[in-house]
Specification:
The protein is of the alpha+beta class. Helices cover 25% and strands 31% of the residues.
Length: 231
Amino acid sequence: MSIPTSLHTDAASALVRLLPTSIVLEPLPFPGSGMPLEEVAQAVTASFVGSESADLALVLDSSTPLADIAGSPSPFLSEADILRPALEAAGSTLGVGVLGDTHIDDASALFSHPSTVVFELHGHDGRAGWFAIRLRDTPHGTANDAAIAGKLSRINNVEMALTVAIGHTRMAVRDVLNLEPGRVVELDRSAGAPADILLNGRLIANGEVVVIDQDYAVRITKILDVAEGLS
């Protein structure tokens, strides 16, 4: 396993601050041998793509209260949903970029990769889990940018998901589990405020919702640059 750098350490520190627990956890570099790979067969995994790209995985020790919280059965939330904010926080330390979908997956290949840095998440009662991060080699330079642009022209006809969001909110898990018909959920913006337009989950523009022939539509009012959309 690789030796941790400041990027790895900052990501691990940001991750433990967003884990849904009152336990104070410290990410400690894990030695290059002795990793129990059978523990990582049900890891929460995601990839971060941006100025620095990385593969991430989080495993919670099955004996900890934290694992009980993350694994609570619900028709609304999975362990990947509950732990996603922590992985987003880890990815945000790498710079501008986007965290892909979170999955429950076998992460043994990532944990055993020679370029991966592994941290043991240590609390006052001992080990609470592991966090793995592998930074990818990100090529730079105008020649590479031109090559990417040429490749993108080949997928001009590929369809992508465009989503319009009129607002967002954050809710505690107990409030999500108590949702029922008739419940009003207050959003984070006022009536008449611009809606967010997202392309495959990434914010690219603002707009206003309109009605055309009894169908909802959105009129684009502002196109965001890459930095705005990813921030």
